[in-house]
DNA sequence: CGTTATTGTAACAATATGTTACAATAGTAA
DNA sequence: TTACTATTGTAACATATTGTTACAATAACG
């Protein structure tokens, strides 16, 4: 979320660059809904501002000469440590009712930053929403140097979020559901190798409904985008499932 | 497009409000791809700045306390005279390479406006793209008071457009194609009553490929969203087609 | 080895879509 | 009135996709 930026910077910069917003586009932010998958659950990466008890999406601003998409990549990489992430712009949030400077004021106060009423961070912001799908096992949630946390939260048990961040997440999930079949993005939530059961549980969790095993398997194999890698010995008393790998047929 | 705004205002305002950008969000614009349908062709509403020979999408800025979506509605209504339009945000364009102040400089010069290099209209802009589907027969393309034109252009014969407006149109069409079945938006391009042939030609034109008549008709009727209104006597020597009407089953 | 639980897949059913064909019919002209 | 023409509405069948059931294959366990 917006706040993340001022904590992205060394302290000098907060009183310097962030003071007048120089170097960034004003009134515009990027927020990222970073999805992970673990234990048959969708997870979302959230930042916590302990002083204020506020939770927020990781986000930031656009540098004066930076591509919007590059800003999004930078923000997601900053939080996950990952490169080559599946990242997709899904909606731009511009309701005036989004505007609520109180949480930002509280945080700046807690940080000991003097904020005049017309401080750029206290103005209205329009936010471009990006959704990211990452391999939960590879991501390294990284908080800022300054005392906030960055952790995975279960999508079904989200804390109360700042501003309209909850509806940003809802819209991201909705987008994911609508484009899942079309774009075949589900793989991005899994490690490189996975079983058909893993993949099905990703689909079921995203769509929020059970799928028919035989039909799902037939369809996925029929797409010709799965490559059989090996058997996976689970240690359980039944047939071992195969491990598959996603192959991009260009 | 961006430029449209300064021509939306009476002359005093240009030297007043538009001068420092007060009353608008800075660095953010809305551009609208307004689609119409006529003679089996998709049309797009474009503005022409005669002094400079530049063509552009209708667009504008977001007022300080205005919802982003309301700004888009305002901009489209301003150009078409229509209310209750199908309007959909489709993408936000934020590449730095979009930034090119020369056309704006030229236009301001032609208007006799002195523009210092740091004028807000000469800074970098990020644009939220909206697509609108309107009834070609009802729209009333409306240029500004100040000497530019506003007309329909055939999508297959677009003039050279300012900045990246051509790729904005391309992306809008792409979005339309991908969501046509899902969202059933094709009706918005037709008058309230239409024949199955009319509807099919809308679909064929948007998708850019012929559809099978029998299958198309069966599917459309099967959706249960068409209401039979009357017969349409075409004056031709063959069976008269039915007129249908779109009904929103809520 | 049998038992157990799960996987891979075949087989059939139901649904959706592609294709062909034909009856219905508004205008035209004998 | 009555053929004739071109297009519409729809049935009928073929093919493709998806839903459903069933069953063989098999890794671990006793």
Number of strands of chain A: 10
Shape of chain A: elongated
Compute the number of helices of chain A: 8
- Overall mean pLDDT of chain A: 88
Quaternary assembly: homodimer
- The proportion of residues forming helix of chain A, as a percent range, comes to 25-40%
Biggest interface goes to:
A-B, 25 and 25 residues
What would you note in describing this structure?
The structure is a homodimer of 250-residue chains. Chain A has 250 residues and is an alpha+beta fold. Chain A has helices at 4-8, 11-15, 17-20, 68-80, 102-110, 165-183, 196-207, 213-222, and strands spanning 24-38, 41-49, 54-56, 59-63, 86-93, 126-133, 149-154, 193-194, 226-231, 242-246. In chain A, strands 1, 2, 3, 4, 5, 6 and 7 form a seven-stranded mixed sheet that branches. In chain A, a hairpin with a 4-residue loop joins strand 2 and strand 3 (54-56). The longest helix of chain A has 19 residues, at 165-183. At the A-B interface, strand 1, helix 4 and strand 5 of A face strand 1, helix 4 and strand 5 of B. Chain A binds a DNA duplex (30 and 30 nucleotides) through helix 8.
Summarize the structure.
Two copies of one chain form a homodimer. With 250 residues, chain A is α+β, with helices and mostly antiparallel strands. The first copy, chain A, has helices at residues 4-8, 11-15, 17-20, 68-80, 102-110, 165-183, 196-207, 213-222; strands spanning 24-38, 41-49, 54-56, 59-63, 86-93, 126-133, 149-154, 193-194, 226-231, 242-246.
Task: Describe the secondary structure blueprint for this structure.
The structure is a homodimer of 250-residue chains.
Chain A: H1 4-8, H2 11-15, H3 17-20, E1 24-38, E2 41-49, E3 54-56, E4 59-63, H4 68-80, E5 86-93, H5 102-110, E6 126-133, E7 149-154, H6 165-183, E8 193-194, H7 196-207, H8 213-222, E9 226-231, E10 242-246
Parallel strand pairs in A: 1-6
Antiparallel strand pairs in A: 1-2, 1-4, 2-3, 2-7, 5-6, 8-10, 9-10
The structure holds a DNA duplex (30 and 30 nucleotides).
